[in-house]
Design brief:
221 residues; alpha+beta; 2 domains; Immunoglobulin-like; six-stranded antiparallel beta sheet; 16 strands; 3 helices
C-alpha cells in the first residue's frame, strides 16, 4: 500500500529533447515538465554529449555574456577541430528557464555542432545518439517530496556564474523520446582513392601556379 501511495504521489517528470535546424550546426532544445510544483527551485538538465557532437566553449561564453543561455561544460577546454574518433564525451549542465505558458514547465536551448566522422562503407550517414538528460533541482527550502526526489549522484555547479558545488536532487522521469539521433553526412570509403588522387592533383596544380606567379612577379635580391 505504501508503494502504491508513493507512486500515486510522484507524478512523472516529462522531458522533451529536440535537435533543431539542419546540417552540422544545430540547436539543442530541452523542455521539462515537472511532476510537482517546485517554486523557488533552480531546474537544470544534465546530459552527456557523445564524441560525435560538441558545444563550442567560446560560443557558449559569448551567449552567456549576452544572457542568451546558461550552461556549464565539462571539460571547459575542448578541441573544436578534432574529428569524432579523436574526441571524447562531454558533460553539459543546462540551466532551464521557466516557461510562461505552464507553471511546472521549464526550457532552454544551446547551440551544438557535429564533428567530422571517418568515411563509412556502404552508407553516407553516421548516427550520433543523444540520450535523454537527467533532470536536477536545487532548492533553498525542503518542500520537495523525499519519496520523489533523491540526492543527485554527483554534486553539480550551483550556476553558470558560480561553479562551486551545490546539492542537487534528481528524479526518475519519462522522456517523450528515449533518445535523439543526429544524422551526420560522411564520405564513402570506396571513394578514398579517387579523393586522394584529386586532392594530390589539385595541390600540385595550385602549388605550381603559386610558384609560377612568384617567379614572374617576385623581386629577388
Amino acid at each position: 500500500c505504501v508503494t502504491l501511495d508513493v507512486q500515486a504521489a510522484c507524478r512523472d517528470t516529462t522531458v522533451t529533447q529536440q535537435l533543431l535546424k539542419e546540417g552540422f550546426h544545430r540547436d539543442l532544445l530541452v523542455k521539462v515538465e515537472l511532476g510537482e510544483d517546485a517554486g523557488g527551485c533552480a531546474v537544470a538538465a544534465r546530459t552527456r554529449l557523445p564524441p560525435g557532437i560538441y558545444v563550442d566553449p567560446y560560443e557558449l561564453t559569448t551567449l552567456q555574456h549576452h544572457n542568451l543561455t546558461k550552461a556549464v561544460l565539462t571539460p571547459d577546454v575542448i578541441d573544436v577541430e578534432a574529428p569524432e574518433y579523436l574526441a571524447r564525451d562531454l558533460l553539459l549542465l543546462l540551466f532551464l528557464e521557466p516557461d510562461a505558458r505552464c507553471s511546472r514547465c521549464f526550457r532552454a536551448a544551446v547551440p551544438v555542432h557535429a564533428r567530422y566522422h571517418r568515411p563509412a562503407e556502404g552508407t553516407e550517414e553516421a548516427l550520433v545518439v543523444l540520450e535523454s538528460p537527467e533532470v536536477l533541482l536545487c532548492c533553498c527550502h525542503s518542500h520537495l517530496s523525499a519519496e520523489c526526489w533523491g540526492p543527485a549522484e554527483v554534486d553539480a555547479p550551483c550556476s553558470s556564474e558560480n561553479t562551486g558545488p551545490c546539492q542537487w536532487h534528481s528524479t526518475k522521469h519519462r522522456p517523450a523520446y528515449e533518445e535523439s539521433m543526429l544524422r551526420v553526412p560522411v564520405g564513402l570509403r570506396e571513394h578514398s582513392s579517387l579523393v586522394c588522387a584529386l586532392t594530390l592533383l589539385t595541390t600540385g596544380l595550385c602549388s605550381g601556379l603559386i610558384l609560377a606567379a612568384a617567379c614572374k612577379y617576385g623581386h629577388f635580391s
